[in-house]
Amino acid sequence: MYKLLIRPLFFLFDPEKIHYFTFSLVRFTSKIPGFSALYRSLYLVDDKRLETEVFGLKFKNPVGLAAGFDKDAKLYKELSNFGFGFIEIGTLTPKGQEGNPKKRLFRLKEDSAIINRMGFNNGGVLEAVERLKANNGVLIGGNIGKNKLTPNEEATSDYEICFDALYEHVDYFVVNVSSPNTPNLRALQDKEPLTELLQTLQNKNLAKPKQKPVLLKIAPDLTDEQLLDIIDIVAVTKIAGVIATNTTISREGLQSVNKAEMGGLSGKPLAKRATEVIRFLSEKSNKAFPIIGVGGIHTAEDAIEKLDAGASLVQLYTGFIYEGPALVKAINKKVLARMN
C-alpha cells in the first residue's frame, strides 16, 4: 500500500514539508487507541533469534533507523513501532541552529536517492534531553556534532557538551565528523584532530561509573589510506566501533535533474561504495571492531550484503522513505530465513 498509494501522494510535495507532515501524521495516529498496536502487528518481527548483542548492548533486532530522520528525539517512541531494533537521534549540537537555507532537501526519483544539505538543523541537545527523559525501553543512539559557527579548533568542546548532556539518556554515542553540509567539518576526519577528539571523549567516558559505547561515523569518500588511518585510530582510542557510511559528495552515474544540487547523496547510488568500505574495514582490521552498515539499503538483499561484508547491524534512512516500513520487516524476515 505504501509504494502504490502513499508514496506517490507524498512525492507530489516538497520533501522537507512532507517529512514534517509525516511526523505529525505518525504522532497523531499513534495517539488513537489501537494504532500503535496495529503498527507493531504489521511491521514488528518479534523473535528472540533476531536479538543481537553488539558492543555490550542487546538489540531486539539488527535493523535500526539512521540519524537524520528523528533529529530532535521527537518521534522515537512512535517510530519504534515500525519494527526497528534501535533508533539513532541527531545529529545534535550544543546550541539549537536553523541549518542551511531552504530549499535543502531534494529527491532524485530516477536514482532512488536523496540529496540533503540540511546543515545540522536541530533545537539543541538540551531540548532533546527533555524528550528522552520519557523514554521507556527504546534503544537510543545519540549522534553528536558541532555548531556551524564553532571553529574546528574548538570543536572538541562542542562534542563534550553534547556527550555530557546525553550521557544518562542514550545507549550509545556516534561522533559525526563526516557530514558534508557543515563547513570544514570533514577536516576533523584527519588523523591527528580525530584521534584527539575521540581520545578526549573516551577519557570522559572512562571516568564514568558505566561506560557507553562511542562510535565514529565516517564518510564513504575516504581513500584506502584514510580508512587504514581509521582502523589505527579505533585501535589507539579504543572506541567501540564505526558506522559506515554517511552520505557521499560523489555524483557518479546519476540520472536525475537534481544531481547537480550541493549536499550529501544517500540512497541506492551509495550502496556499492558503502559495502566496499564495510568490507575493507572488516578485512583489514581482522574484524577488530563492530561496524554498523548504512547506505543504499532498499531491499532485504541489500541489508544481507552489508551483513555479509562485515556489518553487525544495519541502518535505514533513504530506503525507509522510498520503500516504507515494510522494508524493516522484510530484512528481519530475511535474517531469520538464513538461520533455517
From TrEMBL:
Compartment annotation: Cell membrane; Membrane
Assigned EC number: 1.3.5.2
GO CC list: cytoplasm; plasma membrane
Biochemical pathway: Pyrimidine metabolism; UMP biosynthesis via de novo pathway; orotate from (S)-dihydroorotate (quinone route): step 1/1
Residue ranges occupied by any Dihydroorotate dehydrogenase catalytic domain in the UniProt entry: 50-339
Main subcellular localisation: membrane
Catalysis: reaction(s): (S)-dihydroorotate + a quinone = orotate + a quinol
Topological category with respect to the lipid bilayer: Peripheral membrane protein
PANTHER family found in the cross-reference section: DIHYDROOROTATE DEHYDROGENASE (QUINONE), MITOCHONDRIAL, DIHYDROOROTATE DEHYDROGENASE (QUINONE), MITOCHONDRIAL-RELATED
Protein name listed in UniProt: Dihydroorotate dehydrogenase (quinone)
Species for this entry: Flavobacterium muglaense
Gene it is expressed from: pyrD
